[in-house]
Amino acid sequence: MTENGVGPDLVTHNIILSAYKNGAQYSKALSYFGLMKGTGIRPDTTTLNIVIHCLVKLEKIEEAVKIFISMRDKRTESPPDVVTFTTIIHMYSSCGQIENCKAVFDTMLAEGLKPSLISYNVLLGAYASRGMSEEALSVFNEIKQKGFRPDVVSYTSLLCAYGRSRQPDKARDVYYSMKNNRLKPNLVCYNALIDAYGANGMLTEAVETLREMERDGIQPNVVSICTLLAASGRCGRKVDIDTILSASKSRGIELNTAAYNAAIGSFLYVGEYDKAVSLYKSMGTKRAKPDSVTFNVLISGCCKFGKYDEAIELFSAMIDLAVPISKEVYSSVISAYGQQGQLEILESVFADMKMAGCTPDVVTYTSILNAYIGAEKWEKAMALFDEMETINIQLDSIACSAIMRAFNKGGNPTNVLALAKQMRERKISFTDTVIYEMVSACSM
């Protein structure tokens, strides 16, 4: 076009931007938009909608909001349309800012724009993601009141809302209502129903849904398997975990990292430590690679079963693989070193945790407190408590009982009663251990 003297116009630029967007090449789309601005051709609403979409996909939220605000300027030549508002609602939904979703939807109505079915579905999905079933049902009913026919996405979102709000019976009713309205459930819908059953410990119903899915000609995927594995663990069904893994293999479903994590977590939940470790080791021969969740589940499991050496070995493997270390992993490893009385290494890991920008929480501090108490380092325990107070760590009953024990053993029983007063003011419950330390303090 350029060589023949036919300069690309706005339509041409929008087509190219759209191609990049549809091809999920979001960074290239934004780069092209930068070049487009240099040509002097002014973007229109379609252009900016594509740019906002790409920014949202790249999680550049502030930039997306900035463009949205500029489009709402009364002097703009590119005012937002229904697509713009819908994209912004979806963005806030992805960020978990549900109140903003409703605010943007209401603004769209206030500006005289008529939401599309997609707009309603995005708002419905936002509520469903948080298990807000009453709000989701209200939007679903509004869809019908506005003359739209709810589609599979509408029904699936409502089903998901009931599943996540622990109402599996209502989720099932939505599923049958969808079929009665001559809509064919898709893979996402079946997975949502499996999850609704699985999250509520209804493993038999979840497995039957998987079979019904296959009878309807829809092949389960790795998400279906993940959901069933998690459900098996929650139900404490050792045999079913192996059965589900075998069923996955026979159907040619290759496990991804999330599926391995679900299976490992389920094995640990039912006490099958060796099987969990074996499955972890098999990941090295597969495409799925262990991630921070894998190590978090395994290291926590090792500590639960008193296998502290193994927990430390896994921590070393995690460092060698350059896997990001989470707060939970740091806390578990600190607990492991504490149980072995290796205070210097524990303190070193604690320092590394802070240096890495991973903020310790009450669980981390409680692990260190218990280590100091076990080693009879009363002064260090009390100094750690002062640090917790300085940075406003929210105490719980377990931490308070550990601190009280340190005070008593360190010869400061008056501080125990002072802490008990703080607990009462902060409405922290008094456990048997807390009361025992209080009685001990009084006797001193």
TrEMBL record:
Presence of the UniProt keyword Repeat in the record? yes
- What keywords are assigned to this protein? Repeat
Q: Which SUPFAM superfamilies match?
A: TPR-like (SSF48452)
Origin, by domain of life?
A: Eukaryota
The record's PPR repeats, renumbered to this chain, cover: 9-43, 44-78, 81-115, 116-150, 151-185, 186-220, 256-290, 291-325, 326-360, 361-395
Which NCBIfam families does the UniProt record give? PPR
Q: Which family does it belong to?
A: Belongs to the PPR family. P subfamily.
What protein name is recorded for this chain? Pentatricopeptide repeat-containing protein
Name the species this protein comes from. Kalanchoe fedtschenkoi
